[in-house]
Amino acid sequence: MTKKLRIGIIGTGGIAHAHMRAYQKFEDVSIVGGADIIPGKARAFLDEFGLCKAEAFESAAAMIKNLELDGVSVCTYNKTHAECAIMALEAGLHVQCEKPMSFTLAEAVDMVRASRRSGKILTIGFQPRYSHMRRKVDEIIASGTLGEIYYVQSGGGRRRGIPAGSFVDAEKGGFGCLGDLGCYSIDECLHAIKYPKPLTVSAVATDHFGKNPQYWSDPENFNVDDFSVAFVRLENDITFVFKQAWAMHADSLGDTLWLGTKGGIKICNGFEDPSKPSRVMCFMDVNGMQTDTYVLPSNMYDAYRGPAEIDIFAAKVRDFCDAILEGRPAPIPGEEILYNQAIIDGIYRSAKEKKEIVIDIPSI
Ligand SMILES: NC(=O)c1ccc[n+]([C@@H]2O[C@H](COP(=O)([O-])OP(=O)(O)OC[C@H]3O[C@@H](n4cnc5c(N)ncnc54)[C@H](O)[C@@H]3O)[C@@H](O)[C@H]2O)c1
Fold first, then answer.
1. What is the whole-number distance in angstroms between the Cα of residue 100 and the centre of ligand 1?
2. Which of 63, 202, 344, 349: disulfide with 35, CB 3.0–4.6 Å?
3. Would the pTM count as exceeding 0.90?
4. Going by C-beta distance under 8 Å and a sequence separation of 6 or more, which residues neighbour residue 175?
């Protein structure tokens, strides 16, 4: 067998376990090290997966200096994504960084600059991109069938779903649900229309649930948002309406929508209705008649059964490995996610400043 890819994991908390489980499925990958700033945490993590020969470190810098690596997974909390990713890129390593890309737009810009300078991969961990239905929706929109898309709306949100730990600590996570779940919503909505440039944003963010002991166990230490809404102007006169919640008194913030001049797509949110064949609907005029169609997870031979849903997390990690092995560009390039981070940064600042702000993206 050819030489195995040598991977290190930076930050050995919750999501590092999903990275490890994925890497361990692949015979051509070896996890040779882990680093965490909490003493003993990286060692315990490696031992948990039976990797007693892999080396543990208490800083990313020490791991990068002491091990011969091909790439790293950056699994630290949001506020240290940039420093760890840049350090690895500057050492000539390929980087798979967890979502959201960073805390600020300025950090994301620095990450992209570092990847350009080093010529190494910087890919951002949006595993829903590997979902079969997500790809079908993207393909329908990319086909041009819906005409010119002029309005996009995010949906979803959780009724009760405030996460714990670094997610609710502004010192570590930076923001709350607006960046945590928000980055997924933005990617779902805007990757499908090839990420038009964001121009302005007007946003509100609140914390009614995290600060209320009836809904959250530690309100004293909850210091991020748990709900936010934003009105975002994109280039080409496209409007993007963003909504996100970790908690609310409703089953959903509405449906995800793309409206075009010739048709529209809706992803129905809230509880699944077993009487409906799919959550995804397409609206068009056919021969002058208004027509509603369910988009099925079809394959060529059996439209109703459809292809089996794959393990999207493992698919994302595999794609990173294959990109390194095949010398391909980043599967989900930092350059593209810059606009995602620009919107998150804009929502955060607009909500703090309580006014519409202009999104200014430095050239790379
Ligand atoms: N893709 C997904 O499905 C998914 C799911 C959950 C979390 N995440 C993302 O993963 C990231 C981590 O989330 P988590 O739940 O694992 O958090 P966590 O707090 O459980 O783990 C983060 C770990 O990083 C360590 N760390 C922080 N800064 C470090 C540094 N400079 N060097 C080395 N170690 C450092 C911390 O000590 C901690 O052990 C977040 O950005 C989160 O948004 C992604």
1. 11
2. 63
3. yes
4. 78, 103, 205, 224, 225, 344, 348
Contact 226, 208 (CB under 8 A): yes
Q: What is the pLDDT of residue 70?
A: 98
What residue's CA is closest to ligand 1, atom 39? 13
Place of tokens 């944003």: 201
Q: What is the CATH number of the domain that holds 324?
A: 3.40.50.720
Residue 228 belongs to a domain with what CATH number? 3.30.360.10
The reply to whether ligand 1 has any atom less than 6 angstroms from the CB of 118 is no
- Give the total number of structural domains in the chain: 2
* Spacing, Cα 98 to ligand 1 middle (Å): 8
Mean pLDDT in each 10-residue stretch from start to end of the chain (364 residues)?
90 98 98 98 98 98 98 98 98 98 98 98 97 94 98 95 97 98 98 98 98 97 98 98 98 96 94 84 97 81 65 97 98 98 98 98 94
Tell me, yes or no, whether 109 and 89 share the same domain: yes
